[in-house]
Specification:
CATH topology of the largest domain in chain B: Rna Polymerase Sigma Factor, Chain: A
Order of helices and strands of chain B: HHHHHHHH
Number of helices of chain B: 8
Largest sheet of chain B: none
CATH superfamily of the largest domain in chain B: RNA polymerase sigma factor, region 2, helix turn helix motif
Number of strands of chain B: 0
Strand content of chain B: under 5%
Radius of gyration of chain A: 25 Å
CATH topology of chain A: Arc Repressor Mutant, subunit A
Shape of chain B: elongated
Strand content of chain A: under 5%
CATH class of chain A: Mainly Alpha
Structural class of chain A: mainly alpha
Number of domains of chain A: 1
CATH architecture of chain A: Orthogonal Bundle
Structural class of chain B: mainly alpha
Oligomer: heterodimer
Helix content of chain B: 55-70%
Chain lengths: 87, 218
């Protein structure tokens, strides 16, 4: 297996969605190719860091304000648009 | 090296009942759906628009649109996937309005794969994120993902941050599964490349020139 082939399979490898034979081939490549090992390892860390980053958390006060506004719009639509509909 | 642990999704067993109640006019049932997914929708919207006010608008508009069109939701997909699709479209509309000079389309032709070939291969420190304060780290991650094309960061956020499956991401974005996979690979590799300069292992002044290669290897 060449490095380009490894790279091609990297997403499925990191997601753990591949058959055992392909996985074994990739891991054999990783065992001797340090560059591919580093790329796979740091790509995995990239994903984990973003997933755990709490980037763009919705503050509780804003959350309440948005929800209140959404519910008010839905109530108003319900009153104006669905008279007689089952409720 | 093990695979990434999938994000545990919340149970959705009562979700269809909430959707049915909301369809029948029960706004409090819909409010429960808002509580369940508002954080996710906000995060997705902020990732796409890269603008806080736009993200707030997208949360309101997406949920209201979902409520207004609930009857069209047939239950073939998860409510969340259906909602994400609406939210992504709203967010892209905001982005187009803000940057009319740039075409923003999820299925735009992407150039060669050259931009995803790793150029810099350097090992990272064991817990690279711990070198920075929370605020610094958020700033680094924010600026780094900001540099990706909208199509890449949208796929990345749905798959890797929100934990949607490849199939759900394809459905939410109206892309084929190979297109999702190819964009995801490129997004992941480009982010990795851009984070290198912040996270790579520093060579010790009095130590060996070569980064140690043994501690991560199996």
């Amino acid at each position: 297996m060449k490095c380009a082939d490894f790279l091609h399979e990297l997403t499925d490898y990191l997601d753990g969605v591949m058959d055992a034979g392909t996985k074994a081939e990739l891991e054999e490549h990783l065992a001797w190719c340090h560059n591919c090992y580093v790329v796979a390892d740091t790509t995995k860390k990239t994903i984990e860091i973003y997933r755990d980053s709490k980037l763009y958390e919705l503050p509780e006060n804003l959350r309440t304000r948005l929800r209140t506004a959404i519910v008010a719009k839905c109530q108003s639509r319900k009153k104006s648009g669905s008279e007689g509909a089952p409720s | 090296m093990g695979a990434i642990q999938p994000k545990v999704s919340e149970p959705v067993s009562d979700e269809l009942a909430l959707v049915e109640a909301a369809k029948a006019g029960d706004v409090s049932a819909f409010e429960e759906l808002v509580r369940r997914y508002d954080r996710n929708v906000f995060r997705i919207a902020q990732h796409i628009t890269q603008n806080r006010e736009d993200a707030e608008d997208v949360v309101q508009d997406a949920f209201f649109k979902a409520y207004s069109n609930l009857k069209q939701f047939q239950g073939q997909s998860k409510f969340y996937t259906w909602l994400v699709r609406i939210a992504v479209n709203e967010a892209l509309m905001k982005l187009r309005r803000r940057r009319p000079e740039r075409t923003v389309s999820l299925d735009e032709e992407v150039k060669t794969e050259d931009d995803s070939v790793p150029r810099e291969v350097a090992d990272w420190t064991p817990n690279p994120e711990q070198q920075y304060s929370q605020a610094e780290l958020r700033d680094i991650l924010d600026r780094t993902i900001h540099g990706l094309p909208a199509t890449f960061r949208t796929v990345f956020v749905l798959r890797d941050v929100e934990g949607l499956s490849t199939e759900e991401t394809a459905e939410a974005l109206d892309l084929s599964i190979p297109a999702v996979k190819s964009r995801l690979l490129r997004a992941r590799l480009q982010l990795r490349e851009r984070l290198n300069k912040f996270f790579q292992r520093r060579e010790r002044v009095n130590g060996s020139q070569k980064p140690s290669s043994g501690d991560g290897n199996q």
